[in-house]
Amino acid sequence: MRPVLATSVCVAHDGASLLARWQALAAERVDALALDARLPLEGCRAVLQALRGSRIACVEIPYRPRASGPSPLSADRHERRAAQEELLQTLVVAAEHGVARVVLHPASLPLPTGTDLLRERFARGSSLDLEALLEERAVVARAACDHLCMVLDGVLRAAESAGTTLAFLTPSPWPQQSPNASEVERLRAVFGGGRHGVVFATDRAHVARLLDSHDSGDIGEACAVRLADACGLRGQLPLDSGEADWRAGLAQVRAPSADLVVTISPAARPAEVEHSLELCAEACAG
Description:
This protein has one domain (2-285): TIM Barrel. The protein has helices at residues 15-26, 41-50, 77-96, 115-124, 130-162, 181-190, 202-211, 246-251, 270-285; strands spanning 2-6, 32-34, 57-63, 101-104, 107-108, 165-170, 177-178, 196-201, 224-227, 229-231, 234-237, 259-262. The mean pLDDT is 84. It starts with a strand and ends with a helix. The longest helix is centred in the middle third of the chain and has 33 residues, at 130-162. By secondary structure, the chain is an alpha/beta fold. The radius of gyration is 18 Å and the shape is globular. A hairpin with a 2-residue loop joins strand 10 (229-231) and strand 11. The strands form three sheets. The protein has an eight-stranded parallel barrel, surrounded by five helices.
């Protein structure tokens, strides 16, 4: 295992200022950089170009379609093709800079109940009516997963040619998201021994348990573990600052050689980042 610090700890501006902030926080404590999903493709390219010749090993480019952008779950083939092209472009940038991994975040299903409503009801302590929501999800999820399969077919062939691994971020804590852990398991079975893997997120696992979203599946051996604490439905907190048992989450993953990616929000103070990196180093040593 090796410690990694994600650019999630930086306010996303231009590549130069983001990189300077990350380097000031990381100091000599980490071996590698993980670019977080807020960065547009050109922002990823700028940071990677700035890192050429550096001691920092670039290990992944997290990726997800923009909220207003094309969805790989769409029934519209033109939209799926546009979403596939975005992911293929990310793979190209990764390969150009020797990045080993592109992380695919879950996309949103077209459900009438949004995450904002679930957060509001959770905060008020009122009924979430998850059973009805999960029934609505079941109606659309299978077709959405089939659509994602069509997108991934070409993407995984490109990943094989580029020598890059496509990794699914799991679990997906919100019922509105797909693929969830069990769907990731099915997708990986469909594509057999291709260049795909799993990144397990300890904070997301905590939220999934609180929502009882039934996001379960065999994680298997993860290529990376995203380390973050959580409080209620809020994730990406510094380690040991919330209520999530991130150590137990780490222990349940078969990840003997995985990267441990500390992924916390820009609101974290430098001392909290330093403490999180110390705990990450202890986990690596253990």
